Amino acid sequence: MEITCCCIVLCILGSSALGILGNPTNITEGINVQEITIEPKVYAYEGDRAELIYNVTVRSDLPPDRLYEKAVWFSADRQNYCEISQGETKCRGDQFANRTEISDTWFPVSEGERTRHGRIVFRLGNVTLSDTGRYEGEIKTFDNINNVNTMLVVKVGTTTWWNGFGAGIGTLLGSGLAIAFIVILSVKLAVRRKSSQQNLQDNQVQHAHITPVPSEVEVCEGENVAFTFNVTIPANLALDRLYERTVWSPDRENHCVILRNNSKCYGALDFILRAGITESWSPAGEHTRLGKLTLQLNNVSMGDTGYYEGELKAGFIVTNAKTMLIVKEASACQTEPEEGDTATIQTKTGLGFGPGFGVGFVVCLVLVIIGGIIAKFFVLKFRKKDEKSQDVPV
């Protein structure tokens, strides 16, 4: 009897062992390999289409129905978003209406790999300055959520004509020099014939000008920042005719203004307590007078990101210029900037002199020579005309 019981026990243990060996535990079970990544900053130009590419990694044995939602949110309001859920794509929010799309792509998994890779592509067409901000990519499973933020910076202007800049800059430089050479000679001839410079002075543009220095400012959360605008006005324009000098925040509600030598800030109490505006002027020159308009903003936060606009009003003339404020998270300021960020800027600007610069410079020389010949022709023509007028008897 005892021998029979022992045999039964051994059979049960052997069967259990064989069952374990026949059904090994999945090597990815219990391993958290789900993540989503993207470049920390993406640039786009006003009117272009911005493309945000989120790289996704999940477990290779994760069924498609377990990854039940992929989404991209506009972090500023969390009201505008696009998502892919259960194979269906939808976008919500007035800001995203009729100009957004989202798609995902998954790459094949090789035998023995424990992860599966893919990407989520979010496209925003006809971008405007108000689209500047943080965009959050998010993936969800039934037991996990992962997300990551990127900064979309929309710049003024467009680069659609900027392709081939290396060859084009030489041609533009040459054309500019040739045109300037011809214009200068033409002006000198006109002045000589009329024997007066009064017309030139009367035709001078009497508008005020304002330019930001620099055009983009990047600070860390919690720091102080100063926006400086260089101001140029005609020398004969009295300061009391500069009706208003204003710097507007991105929401166009918070602003600081100088009016008749009195400065004040308006808007939310938090902005008024942190902001201040000053100006300084150099002595008037022969034709112009230079000054500086400065907005000081203390203890900046992520919500301060955006374009700040300096504005001058002189009579019925209004002139303005914008500068971009980028606020980085405090944690991001503790590390050195990545090389990828610099590469992105260089790619967007497309700066660099290629072989085409030599061709452009040759065009420059040809245009200068042609301009000189034309100018010489007119000089000789007017000189002969003057000699004939002197030979006429009185």
Structural summary, described in words:
By secondary structure, the protein is an alpha+beta fold. Among the domains are: 35-155, Sandwich (Immunoglobulin-like), CATH 2.60.40; 204-329, Sandwich (Immunoglobulin-like). 28% of the residues lie in helices and 37% in strands. The chain has six helices and 20 strands. Strands 2-10-9-4-5-6 form a six-stranded mixed beta sheet. Strands 12-20-19-14-15-16 form a six-stranded mixed beta sheet. Helix 2 runs parallel beside helix 6. The longest helix is centred in the last third of the chain and has 36 residues, at 356-391. It is flat and about 100 Å long. The protein starts with a helix and ends with a helix. The model is unreliable at 14-31, 158-163, 196-205 and 342-352 (pLDDT under 50).
